[in-house]
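Re-run with default settings, no changes from the original entry. Doing this only to confirm the output is reproducible before filing.
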Amino acid sequence: MLPYWPQLLLFMSAVMLLALYGLTASGHFPAEVRSQALKGGSGAAALWGSATIAGIAAGLTLLRGWDTLPWHAAVIGAGAMLLFAPLLLRPLPDSFVNGRLGLLAFSAGAAVPALLLWRPWP
């Protein structure tokens, strides 16, 4: 049994949600292809605010993963999640992926396991 499996599962879930966020956000760049709803004030705030949250979550995840996980488990777990992310994104509706809700859901979703990684472990 792996003594670090809870941390590994949280790390992998954070990487998965960050990969989903990255795929979702990449559809909004360059600005010319961005939907009208995301070009205005609140749409731009949602896009850049979610990018900030995702960036912080990525930093927290990488720092804690580096500190608590063996490198081989982190590489295999993160690699598997990066490969699996496009398959998970494909069945989601375009309105979700191309809108604000996808950006906010994936960035907030990534923040949860990233923060949980920082709780004290026995």
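The radius of gyration is 15 Å. The CA atoms of residues 20 and 86 lie 7 Å apart.
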